[in-house]
């Protein structure tokens, strides 16, 4: 199994300890060059628009929490889906990471067309390996 290297991972979570822990896991996996953090959905949308405007492209992976202030994970997905096609990141994997055990949250997440997966926290190195491989497959399919 050869793992692809992700250029950028965006963590979208308001919990500093979770962000620190997930950043360490991502770095330990050695599968991502850069880990960026947005503390809510508004900051994540701003981050994406700023990167695109600067010609930096989209992150390879967005790890999205559900419960955050200002704009939660579901609201982020709805706002992201409403963006014009040129402002969306077609080859970015969006994964919801949550502590929620509610089946309604899982069902709502899995029904969203822009969401790749719904996983329970915490993130693991094995999760990162799967995401890196899937990201490479998506890029290959979209860009030949």
* The CATH superfamily title: Response regulator
Proportion of beta-strand residues: 15-25%
Mean pLDDT: 89
Query: Helix-strand pattern, N to C?
Result: EHEHEHEHEH
Strand order of the largest sheet: 2-1-3-4-5
- How many helices? 5
- Helix-residue proportion: 40-55%
Query: Span between N and C termini?
Result: 21 Å
Number of strands: 5
Gross geometry: globular
Features:
single chain; 144 residues; alpha/beta; Rossmann fold; five-stranded parallel beta sheet; 5 helices; globular; phosphoprotein; Response regulator; TCS_response_regulator
Please characterize this protein's 3D structure.
The modification 4-aspartylphosphate is found at residue 65. InterPro entries: CheY-like_superfamily (IPR011006), Sig_transdc_resp-reg_receiver (IPR001789), TCS_response_regulator (IPR052893). This is Response regulator. Keywords: Phosphoprotein. One of its GO terms (biological process) is phosphorelay signal transduction system. The protein is of the alpha/beta class. It has one domain: Response regulator (Rossmann fold). It contains 5 helices and 5 strands. It has helices at residues 16-29, 41-53, 73-81, 103-110, 125-143, and strands at residues 6-12, 32-38, 61-64, 93-98, 117-120. A 5-stranded parallel sheet has the order 2-1-3-4-5, sandwiched between helices. Helix 1 (16-29) packs across helix 5 (125-143) and helix 2 (41-53) runs parallel beside helix 3. The longest helix is centred in the C-terminal third of the chain and has 19 residues, at 125-143. The chain starts with 5 loop residues before the first strand and ends with a helix.
């Amino acid at each position: 199994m050869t793992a692809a290297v992700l250029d950028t991972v965006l963590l979208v979570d308001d919990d500093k300890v979770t962000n620190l822990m997930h950043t360490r896991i991502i770095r330990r996996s050695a599968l991502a060059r850069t880990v960026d953090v947005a503390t809510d959905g508004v900051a994540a949308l701003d981050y994406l628009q700023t990167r695109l405007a600067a010609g930096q492209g989209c992150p390879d992976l967005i790890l999205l929490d559900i419960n955050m202030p200002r704009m939660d994970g579901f609201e982020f997905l709805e706002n992201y889906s409403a963006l014009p096609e040129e402002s969306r990141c077609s080859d970015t994997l969006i994964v919801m990471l949550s502590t929620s055990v509610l089946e309604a949250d899982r069902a709502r997440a899995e029904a969203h067309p822009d969401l790749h997966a719904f996983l329970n926290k915490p993130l693991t190195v094995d999760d990162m390996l799967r995401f890196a491989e899937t990201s490479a497959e998506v890029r290959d399919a979209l860009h030949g």
